[in-house]
Design brief:
Blueprint (H helix, E strand, L loop, with lengths): L15 H20 L1 H39 L9 H4 L4 E5 L15 E4 L10 E5 L6 H11 L13 E6 L11 H11 L5 H10 L2 E6 L9 H14 L3 E7 L5 H5 L3 E6 L3 H15 L8 H13 L4 H14 L6 H12 L10 H25 L5 H11 L10 H11 L1
Parallel strand pairs: 3-6, 3-7, 4-5, 5-6
Antiparallel strand pairs: 1-2, 1-7
């Protein structure tokens, strides 16, 4: 019986000549690589550069998209939502406390203030409070810091500091002050961002946290809220913090290490001309026949200490209509008239449409009066009660009047 072998004989055999040739070839290749190592290293870098550039571009693209989207969200907080806020921004005059020296002499003043250029606001103390009365431009100044840091760095980042906007009224001080909590707070204002991505940026880049609405934080919560953000500021040593508030009630922030700086809106001819030229570039004027007279009226109003909101109203009204009333109340009423259309109800309901328009105008004027004289906004309940008070009695009220009135107010 023929039995097949359990192990087949290997077909490979050691060949000394082949081994020698292989060793010589390997040596030649190694010698070549060694002799040309610098050139090969440069070649490798050249081949890798497109890949690295693509990676940087993808990362930069995410950061650029974030910056652009954040700026778009902030534009919605500004009066009349300017397409280019830099065009109409008039930097305020800023006074900061004079630093107390380490060694005091008898003639050393312990208190005082010195001017600070807005464009260098972030060069000093890392925790600031922008204080000013309503109408001084607190929100736009806070927002413009995002445009201020929007400069491409050597590493290709589109900003010098990673910007974050938070609403202090949304802080829940009973929750632990963590970077995750800060990221979630930012997402409440800017839902397009991912919390995990924000956390990574905060941990790897210098940041700028802009905190709005301190004056709307309840008095009983301010101590806890200030301690909460103060702890977070300590957890992010490379961060800069700027809060905006009224001229009172920010003591807890000072205790948390924040330094107050006083804002005074820029006025006079420069403010009037900046606003007019800026808005005219964004909203081309309806007519330029009375441009010089309108600008003179703006300058006159600015020199009479009208605030930036009032000057903005005057400017926009002229650009939209070509008219430039003198009295502020006439400006407000005329502007509301131009923005508030009469409902299209047909000829049969023309009287009802006009009545709804007039009542809506009365309501908006009351809202503006309350904001101007009392420094506060109408609550929903107050608005409801006021509308009810100005409507005719139900028994003699046209059927469509209340609905059209509420629709007009909702659309504004």
């Amino acid at each position: 019986m023929h039995v097949a072998p359990l192990l087949q004989k290997s077909s490979w055999q050691f060949d000394p000549l082949s081994a020698l040739i292989g060793a010589v070839a390997a040596g030649v290749i190694a010698f070549f690589l060694y002799q040309n190592r610098k050139a090969l290293q440069q070649l490798a870098q050249k081949l890798w550069e497109p890949v690295a550039r693509m990676r940087r571009k993808l990362q930069s693209s995410t950061e650029e998209k974030y910056l652009s989207a954040l700026q778009e969200a902030l534009r919605g907080l500004l009066l009349f939502t300017p397409q280019n806020p830099q065009a109409i921004f008039v930097p305020p005059a800023i006074l900061a406390p004079t630093p107390i020296p380490a060694v005091l002499a008898e003639e050393t003043p312990l208190q005082g203030q010195e001017p600070v250029d807005f464009h260098h606001l972030l060069d000093g103390h890392s925790r600031l409070i922008l204080t000013g009365v309503q109408g001084t431009g607190r929100t736009i100044s806070l927002a413009m810091l995002v445009w201020e840091i929007a400069k491409v760095t050597e590493t290709g980042q589109p900003y010098q500091r990673f910007p974050l906007w938070i609403d202090l009224t949304q802080v829940q001080p009973e929750t632990p002050p963590t970077i995750e909590a800060l990221a979630n707070l930012a997402v409440q204002f800017f839902p397009q961002a991912y919390p995990k991505w924000i956390i990574t940026q905060l941990q790897t880049s210098p940041s700028l946290i802009l905190a709005d609405n301190w004056d709307r934080v309840s008095a009983e919560s301010r101590q806890a809220v200030a301690a909460w953000i103060g702890t977070l500021a300590g957890m992010l040593p490379e961060s800069a913090w700027v809060a905006a508030t009224d001229v009172e009630g920010y003591g807890p922030l000072v205790e948390a290490g924040f330094m107050p700086v006083t804002m005074t809106p820029a006025g006079g001819r420069h403010a009037a001309e900046t606003l007019y030229r800026g808005w005219a570039s964004l909203v081309p004027p309806k007519t330029v026949e009375a441009e010089e007279d309108a600008l003179n009226t703006l300058i006159w109003a600015a020199e009479a200490n009208e605030g930036l909101p009032e000057l903005t109203l005057r400017t926009l009204h002229y650009l939209r209509t070509g008219d430039y009333p003198n009295r502020p109340v006439e400006v407000m009423e005329a502007l509301l008239q131009s923005y508030l259309p009469v409902p299209a109800l047909g000829e049969e309901q023309a009287e009802v449409a006009q009545q709804a328009h007039d009542l809506a105008l009365t309501t908006l004027l009351q809202v503006a009066k309350t904001a101007f004289l009392e420094g506060r906004a109408f609550s929903k309940q107050e608005l409801q009660e006021f509308v009810t008070s100005i409507l005719p009695p139900e028994e003699g009220r046209p059927p469509k009047l209340e609905g059209e009135l509420r629709k007009l107010l909702q659309n504004t």
